[in-house]
Structure formats: structure tokens, C-alpha cells
């Protein structure tokens, strides 16, 4: 079932999410989240974005692997992204390292706004997968970026929090309009201030 995406201004997007009890059956929620993410053409979706304050997010980075790689390094990253579909239950980013790099990020909860965000290039993350198997991975590039963005969601952080004060002021009206539902989008949303 396609769920509505909670828009900017929704209190659940600012909550530090609760851990999920180990072994809990969340298969229906995962199925709904993947369906919702694909219906809204996203590459990641966190539980708070569908109104659940749980430490859970999903990713499918395959759309990033559709462009032609320019060099050998990029080809290696694209090969990883082609099959990079994961479920992250109760994740912990253990380490962030490497060179900081800027990339234009967007968010399903903040439609029609994209801004450069600077993040570390490599992460180490531990988590449980959909079968409650414990995993630890070291990832870089776009895969790391998507995970950092989704991880922020379960910490109550949005990508707009990284912007400088001037950029935030310039976006204030657009963000208020999103919260009120004054935005054109092609997927279901739940707006906190819509009358």
C-alpha cells in the first residue's frame, strides 16, 4: 500500500526515533515503504517520513547506476549502486571519514527543493537487515551519501539543517508553502498545516 509522505513541518520528522524490538515482524511496513518509495521515485525512505518514529530506513540506489560511468573509479561505484538495495533496522553509523564533498540533495518530505550538502565520503554502519541478521559495512560515494541522509531522518535532522543561515532565509517561504500543502507533487503527502 502506498503511504502518504509526511511533509516538512510534521513533528514526526523532528523526533529522535525509537529502536525496534529485535525480531519484531515489520514485513508489512517494509513492503509498504518500498511501494511508497518507488511510487514517489525516491532512492531512500525513512520510517518517520511515513509517520512512524522508528529507527528504520530503506534504500535502493539503482537509479544512480543508470548514467554512463566516466572512469574506472566511477565504474566501480556504479557497479555497487546497481545492486544497492538495503533495509536498515536500528542502524548506527560507527564512523565517518574521508574527504568532505558537496552534493545536491533533495528529499521526498521537502519536494522541489535541492541544495548542496557537504558530508564525509566514507561511512561504517552497523544494522540489522530485513531478516534480523546483523551486518556491518563500510561504504563510500553515493551509497554513503544516501545512508547519511536517511540516517539523519531517524535522528530528527533534515538536509536543510546543514544550510547556511542566508540560504535558510531564502528558502523560508518555500518551506512554509510545503508545510501548508501549497506545492505541486506527483505522490501522496500528509501536510501538517493544510487547512
UniProtKB/TrEMBL annotation:
Superkingdom of this protein's organism: Bacteria
Chain segments annotated as transmembrane: none
Enzyme class: hydrolase
GO molecular function, one term: metal ion binding
Gene3D superfamilies assigned to the protein according to its UniProt record, in alphabetical order: Peptide deformylase
Family to which this protein belongs: Belongs to the polypeptide deformylase family.
Role: Removes the formyl group from the N-terminal Met of newly synthesized proteins. Requires at least a dipeptide for an efficient rate of reaction. N-terminal L-methionine is a prerequisite for activity but the enzyme has broad specificity at other positions.
Name used for this protein in its record: Peptide deformylase
Amino acid at each position: 500500500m502506498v503511504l502518504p509522505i509526511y511533509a516538512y513541518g510534521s513533528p514526526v520528522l523532528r523526533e529522535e526515533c525509537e529502536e525496534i524490538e529485535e525480531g519484531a515482524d515489520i514485513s508489512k511496513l517494509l513492503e509498504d515503504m518500498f511501494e511508497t518509495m518507488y511510487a514517489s521515485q525516491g532512492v531512500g525512505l525513512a520510517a518517520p517520513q511515513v509517520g512512524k518514529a522508528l529507527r528504520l530506513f530503506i534504500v535502493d540506489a539503482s537509479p544512480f547506476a543508470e548514467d554512463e560511468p566516466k572512469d574506472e573509479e566511477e565504474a566501480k561505484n556504479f557497479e555497487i549502486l546497481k545492486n544497492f538495495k538495503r533495509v536498515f533496522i536500528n542502524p548506527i553509523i560507527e564512523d565517518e571519514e574521508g574527504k568532505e564533498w558537496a552534493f545536491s540533495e533533495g528529499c521526498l518530505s521537502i519536494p522541489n527543493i535541492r541544495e548542496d550538502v557537504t558530508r564525509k565520503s566514507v561511512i561504517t554502519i552497523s544494522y540489522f537487515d530485513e531478516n534480523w541478521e546483523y551486518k556491518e559495512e563500510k561504504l563510500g560515494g553515493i551509497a554513503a551519501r544516501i545512508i547519511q541522509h536517511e540516517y539523519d531522518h531517524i535522528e530528527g535532522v533534515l538536509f536543510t539543517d546543514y544550510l547556511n543561515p542566508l540560504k535558510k532565509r531564502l528558502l523560508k517561504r518555500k518551506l512554509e508553502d510545503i508545510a501548508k500543502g501549497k506545492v505541486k507533487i506527483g505522490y501522496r503527502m500528509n501536510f501538517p498545516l493544510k487547512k
